[in-house]
UniProtKB/TrEMBL annotation:
Organism: Actinomyces timonensis
Family annotation (Pfam families): AlkZ-like
Compositionally biased residues, Gly residues: 210-219
Name of the molecule in the record: Crosslink repair DNA glycosylase YcaQ family protein
Region (Disordered): 205-224
Amino acid sequence: MTARAPRKAPVGRPRQASLLRIVAQGLVPATSAPDVAEAVRRQLAVQGQQVSAVPHALISRTTGTQMADVERAFAHGRLVRSWPMHGTVHITTAEDHHWLREALAHRYESAMTTGASRWGVTQADVDRAGQSALALIAEEGPLPRARLISAWEEAGLLAPGGGTASSQVGSGRRRHLIVRLHWQGVLVQGPRADNEHLVVDARALPGSETGPGGSGGSARGSDGHRAALAEIARRYATSHGPVTAADLARWTTLPVGQAAQALEDAVEMTNAADYAAGEPCAAVRALVPLTRARMGEGPRGALAVMGAAGSASSARERATTVYLRADLPDLLAANSEDAERTLFLASFDELHVGYKDRGCLTDEAGERLICPGANGMFRPLLVDRGRVVAVRPVGAGLVWASGARRSARLERDVERAVRRVEERLAR
């Protein structure tokens, strides 16, 4: 691809940060992934709670892929769906599932204990449910959720639905057992069928010892835990930057101080002399150095790269330091037209939900437009020149943002962006 020259006019701070993130996210051809599994690997984890939105998010970060490619990636076991972090469903590669899950499992121990107490679930119940599920999977193959639940009812682990109170308890027990068995690494979701992911045996996936912590594992207290957190930070900063420690903390639920240390470790790791040495897929897997920077004050404040030397030592420095791949400013300069083009992105897209500070992408009115009920249910969005200009609720037409400067050009580009995505999802 021929690099485009950067525009001469300066880009204001909010829009510059958004355009940098668009490039880092793989939403321009220069940084897009060769296939959907690699798109997920670069991001480490992609929001997956709305099953129908996942293919949209993945093809947006690849060139030339279609719905059939997404189906194959799950069917062949390259991608899986689970609750590896943030207490939320995410998509990961099969290779990353167990070490990522173990590295962050301690963040949800309290929630699991509370849920078990609330719904009257004992560890013996969990063990029986796991054994029942694994036996059924061995006999029948990947299971729809309804089949798994019926098996648990037959085993006496769940009572058939009755009145309102019992239905609530039954629903709570069902969800707790399913999430708990994913959290413990017993079950995971794989192949897609009828707009759901079928449940499979997670024990067949690569173990945590194959991750960044090596034989030391990745769980808290293990020898490999710090290395695992550094790898989480590396992939997040590479695929989402510029980001702060607060952004990473929100993405993972790690404490801000621990997130800051992980980012510092990632900078040190990626700037080591032997980093990615001998790795034949370094470019494909975006194994690039990270750097620190600061965003200038005011609406026209520009990104000021600080470099990788030293460290952000004080709490104040860490709070104001942003982390990004070192080549990101040059990538934006060479691909600014692609970064500014109109994008049609999925519900729960990482460009929006992957950060604590989303002010560079939209304002408070835009946030209400994307998530009108403030209930965690997000709408597909249209982004133009780095800013949200509209949303497109499923089954409905466009709803324009109040600040969008509508024009014949914008309306044409929005229509084209939607049509391109819909055509790819139909194949």
